[in-house]
Amino acid sequence: MFSAQSGEDAIKLVGETEPKIHLLLSDVDMPQMSGPELGTALKKTRPDIRVMLMSGGDNGLLIINYGWAYLQKPFLSVKLVQMVTDVLHSEDRSQPGHGFDTRKDIPYLNTPRRVQ
Question: Is domain 7-110 classified as CATH 3.80.10.10?
């Protein structure tokens, strides 16, 4: 697992890392470079990387249009772990024309929960 403080740092880290990187997990809204911009940049050098973005804002449909998995904040850690697992074990649909629609492809994310 790798961690970077900015989009530019992430691009540099990926460029210096030889092993395969399976997943980018990033916030949508970041200073200097957005999560979608970072995902697009990394896809150029690592086309097989899966992209999963999260946000507390109202931009889920934009991310889904990129074809990337999206998780709305706030979320439970169990949902994050399950979604990462699902994204890593599903067909890579984060290529043009292969949209990963979180609303359809991971139905438990939208299942209403009864609060007690």
Answer: no
Nearest C-alpha neighbor of 34 from the set 58, 66, 6: 6
Q: What backbone torsions phi and psi does residue 105 show, to the nearest 5 degrees?
A: -80, -20
Residue 19's CB: how many other CB atoms inside 10 A? 6
Residue 4, helix vs strand vs coil: coil
**In this predicted model, what pLDDT tens digit does every residue of 6-55 receive, in sequence order?**
999 999 999 999 889 999 999 998 889 999 999 999 999 998 899 899 98
To 5 degrees, how large is the angle CA 89–CA 91–CA 94?
110
Using CA atoms, how far apart are residues 61 and 103, in angstroms rounded to an integer? 10
39: amino acid identity, one letter: G
Task: Give the predicted TM-score (pTM) of the model.
Answer: 0.75
Domain boundaries, the chain: 7-110
